[in-house]
Amino acid sequence: MKLNKITMLLVISILLIFQSGCKKHADTVGIPIVSAVPLDDNLPEASGLEIDNNGRFWANNDRGNSAILFGFNSCGTIEQQIGLTVGNEDWEDLAMDENDNMYVGDFGNNDNDRTDLKIYILSNYSEISSTNVTPEIINFSFEDQSSFPPADHELHFDVEGFFVSDEMIYLFTKDRSDPFQGKTNLYQIPATTGNHTAVLLDSFNTFSSKKAGAITGADISPDGLKMVLLSQEKIFLFTNFLAPDFFSGNVEIFDFSVERKFEGIAFQNECDVFLVNEDSSSQSPQLSAINLCD
Description:
eight-stranded mixed β-sheet
């Protein structure tokens, strides 16, 4: 049977719709929380999250809280505490490398006026039994910041997410600009002690609303093939990139099925990802799990 012009146009239109739906750079889709357990009362402002070589979860409280890392199991029960002999100006995230070193990011910079940004390093982390540890220290500054603080529309020097890969640290900024621009900047520094200048590698446009577009966490999968950025409302999943150009390749964006103030994210494996959220009027702190492969 021959198709007339109207039928042909309809078929072509349908094909185009299906093809556009298969593009990897997709519109946002929902992602369910697979499980969630309450966190201990010691973690009211859980900000960073990591998983050590023993499978134990670790989290910290942020600005102005105690300089303690809390280790807990999948039920949220605290099993270990490690205190650092340094302050907690504004701890925002945790990261681990392939050599069992834990990195604590004291780089929260809400007002963009800090000149004392630091990352603390704890070696052989999964073997630490002491409750009081003196870390090694990385001091860093941004290559493109000259004013403290800069103008309101240039407030891009707060960091809430980072990870370590191939002996380099990658920092992702949280947009504090006014008016809000909806972007994150990617910086790089060596994962070694000393004084470093963070080099700007790239930027990524997130969303125009603060809850969706302000980045609060980051991580890379154990195989180095997936990267996630976190906001209170969304997860940005990057794949098929060529590191350190993490914003190349494909990005999928997922909406959460619940409303929480998500602050920390960590891969357990290539598919399973865990999240922590701060206490808020709508939700108490929890450890939540999602699956990126379903």
